[in-house]
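Please go through the sequence and fold tokens given here and tell me how the chain folds. Record follows.
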Amino acid sequence: MQQLFSGQIRYFSHGAAVPGVHVRVTGSQATVVATDDDGHFAVDGIPGGTWTLAPERSGADDGGAISALDAAAVLQAATGLRPLDAGGAIACDVTGDGTVNILDASRLLQYKLGGLARLPVTQQCGAEWTFVPGPHTGGNSQSISPLVSPTACTRGAVRFESVASPVTGPDFDAILVGDCNGSWRPGVAAARASTTEPTVQIGAPKRSGRQQVRVPLSVSGAGAFYAVDVDVRYDPARLRPKGARSLGHRDGRLVELRVIEPGHLRLALASATSLAAERDPVLVLTFVGDRDAVAQVSIQGAVDDRPAAVTRAPSTARRVSRRP
């Protein structure tokens, strides 16, 4: 029996090969082949006939590609600041409602902070990846585009009718749902290259009635940036988190806070427009409790996926840390 199909699977945003994709082949019999390190797959050992090829990639390991920066990209798309091609629209629409809006950004931040085990689309479809059929030559075929709705999920595939000779293809574009800015790379943790290291500064705490303490967080040295992600440790016997908000011009911004356990919270900010020109702190974290306990608060931070140094305003300097 001859090699009937030979194709390649690449990432939608930059064309990098996607290894480890299983291509399910169904017809008069069923078989599964996997893409190699170059994203290639080949199907042989089956007779001519009618066949359907449908890729799938399991597992939620996104290599750090999904972050608060993707929520910022969603906000940019929702406000018309970021045009989306077909692949980008699929990646950004994590709710699967056919539109890209602030709810998608909110769900991305919740997922990033651990509040959601899976994004709504991946919960609905049972997979974190989707695949869009690309070009192929030979055979009488029908491309099946991926489709998600609140009640159904159709995976991308290609169906060939009465194939008798080898087909070059089909190729597919792979999309990690939630990777709105298209930063995924095979086997590489996503990160933005930069010649400078951003800094997150913990400002002087301010009392605000009824034992509330406001702790401002500022960013410097980042250039144009759109997302901030911080991990906060505090003494739960002396402080209780009440909330967080963004200062300055707040249109097109989203803030999410999640308490992981007493003494540990995560906080993320995403913005449709650059925050580089902000004079005010970009975030204010509010606690209820002892103002002096703020001196024991430690954080790790990232700005646009770049690890950030952490400093304190002189009056609060006691402990600094850095995100690994």
Remarks:
- Confidence is low (pLDDT under 50) at residues 316-324.
